[in-house]
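User: C-alpha cells for both sequences below?

Assistant:
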Amino acid sequence: MSFNYLLHNSPAFFISFCFLVGLVIGSFLNVVIFRLPKMMERGWAEQCADLRSETIEVQPPYNIVTPRSACMHCGHKLKAIENVPVMSYLLLKGRCSRCGALISPRYPGIELFTAVISGFIAWHFGFGFTAFAALAFTWALIALAFIDIDTQLLPNDITIPLLWSGLLINLAETFTDICSAVLGAVVGYFTLWSIYWCFKLVTGREGMGYGDFKLLAAIGAWLGWQMLPIVILVSSVAGTLVGTSLIIMSKRGRHALVPFGPYLAAGGVVALFWGNWLSTRYWNFS
C-alpha cells in the first residue's frame, strides 16, 4: 500500500503521521517562540538608530534559521541527534551534553503538546484540507500563546498573516462562509478595541494590548463571528481563574500584568473543536 493510500484510508495512520509531524513542528515552534521576539528587538533598535541618524554596530545574522541552536549556558552548537524532538531530551537526561547545564522541560513539553493536539486534530477532522488548515491555525496559536507568556507581545509577523490566511481559507467555506469570516475579523477587532477604550477611560490604565485585538480578529476570520461569544467567554473565564490564582499564589498586586493572548488562543482552540456544540447551547441558554 502506498503512503497516500494509507493517509486517505487509514485513520490510525493519519493520526500517527500528524502526531509525528506535530513533534517536528513543536521543535520548530520552540525556535520561533525564543527567536522571534529577539528579532523584533533588533529591528526596533535599527529603526530607532535610523530615526536618530545613528550608526549601529553590524551584528551577525540572526533569524529563525541562523545561527544553529546552541546551549544558552556554554554556547555548544547542538548536533542533529541533539535536536530530535523529546527523544534527545530523554537521552541527554535533560542536560547539555557538554556543560551539563539543565535544559528547561518546557522545550519537550511544547513538542509533546503540539504533537498531541495535532493527533487530536487528525482524529477530529479526518484526512482532508480542513484538518491541514486546522493544524496550521493551531500551530500559530501555540506560538503566539507562549510568546505572549514570555514577553507580553503578540507579533504582527504572526497575527496579521493569520488574519489574512483565515479569510483566504474561508473563500472555500472551510470553517465558515466568507461573509461570516469578514464579519468575524471586524467584530473581533472592534470588540476588544471598545473594551480597551472603555477600561482606559474609566481607570486611566491600559487593560490589554493592540495585539489582543488582532488575535481575536484573526480567530474571527478563521471561525466566523458566530464563534466569538464562545471564544470571549472561554478566554475570560480562564483568564480570570488563572490570573486570580497567580495573584494569590505569588502575592502579586491586582494590577500585575497578566497576558491575555494565551486565553484567547485557548478559546480559539475550544471553538475550533466544539464551537458549534457550545454555541447552540449558549444561545439556547441566553
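Moving on to the next sequence.
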Amino acid sequence: MKRALSLAAKGKGRTSPNPMVGAVIVKHGRIVGEAWHRKPGEPHAEIHALHQAGPRARGGVLYVTLEPCCHTNKRTPPCVPLLKQSGLARVCVAMIDPNPQVNGRGIHALKQAHLQVSVGVLEQEARHLNEVYGYWITTGRPLVTLKGAMTLDGKIATATGESRWITGERARQDAHRLRSQVDAILVGVGTVVADDPEMSARGKKATAGQRVGRQPVRVVLDSRLRIPLKSKILQWVGEQPTILCTTIQAPPKKIELLRARGIQVWVVPVQSGKVSLKACLSRLGKEGLTSVLLEGGSTVNASALQQGMVNRVRLYLAPALLGGRDAKGLIGGLSPKKLDQAWPLADVQLKKLGNDWLVTGTIEPGRIGRT
C-alpha cells in the first residue's frame, strides 16, 4: 500500500476534480501491475494496473488507495465491473470514497462478487493525500489555503504598499510550485489595483520567469468591477481563465465589455456591501474547482478567516523586521479583545527555504471562523 500511495502522489496537481489514486497488483509476492490516475478523462489507476498485469492478475491482490468506483455518470466507465471480471482473489483498499455516489457501494459490489475485501490499510495516510478531494466532495466548496509572505513581525507591505520582494528566490520558487498544483488563485480587487499581479505559475527565476506547467484559474473579488481594463490578469484568458466575482452594484456595461473579452463575470450575492466569499467559493466548487490559494491583502485575509473559509495557512517568513503601525499586516480589521479568540493552528511545520522560513498549519477543527 505504501507503493500505491507513492504512485498516487505523482498525480498531485493533475487529477482535479478527481482524487489522486494509486494501484498495485501483487501475485506470489511480486508486483505484476501498477499505475496511478494521471488526469481527468483517462482510465483510472486500477484499470491501467489491470492492463499492465494482463492474465497475471488472476489470483492476485490489488492494493488501491481509494475505493474503486461503481457509478456511471462520469466520463470513464466504472472500475468495479472490470475488477469483478479480472480473476483477482483479493482487493485491499486504503479508504472508502466519501463521494455519496460511491461511499461503500464499490466495496459492497466487490464482496457480492465473492472477492475478499479489506479496508483501512494506511487509511490516515490516504486521507491526508486526498484531503482536498475529501473536503470538496463533502462540502461542495474548494479547500482554501491562505498564503502570505511577511517579515518576522507580520508585515506584508510598507505603508506605501511596497511588497516586492519580502522573501528571497527560494521562497518565491516554492510559491510558484504551489500555484501550479492548485485549481485557482483568489485575490481582492485591491491587490490587482495596487500590484497588477499576473497570478501565474512561473519558472525557476520567478521574478521574471516564463509561465510553466499547469496554470491556475484567476479569481478576483470585485463588488463594483473597479478592475482596470489593462490589468495583467485580463490577458491570456485562453490559456489561463479569469473569473471576476462581482455584485449587482457593478455597471452592466462593464460586465458586457469584460464578457465580450472572454472574461467570466459572476454576479453573486452581497454580504456587508461586498462579494459574499462563501457564495463565490460555492460557485467555484460547483464548477469543479477543488482547491484555492488565497493571496489577498489584509482585508480579504481577515474576511476569509472571520467567515470560516480558511482551512490551511502557508506563510513565508523573511528574517527582517519592518515595524510601524502604518505598515500593512497579514490580517486586517480589528484585533480581538481576548487571546482565546485567536485562530489556533494545528499540524504546524517549519521548513528552511534559503534565508527564509516556511510555516504551514491547519486551522483547528471547530475553531474555523469567529464572530
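User: Anything stand out in the second?

Assistant: The chain has a mean pLDDT of 91.
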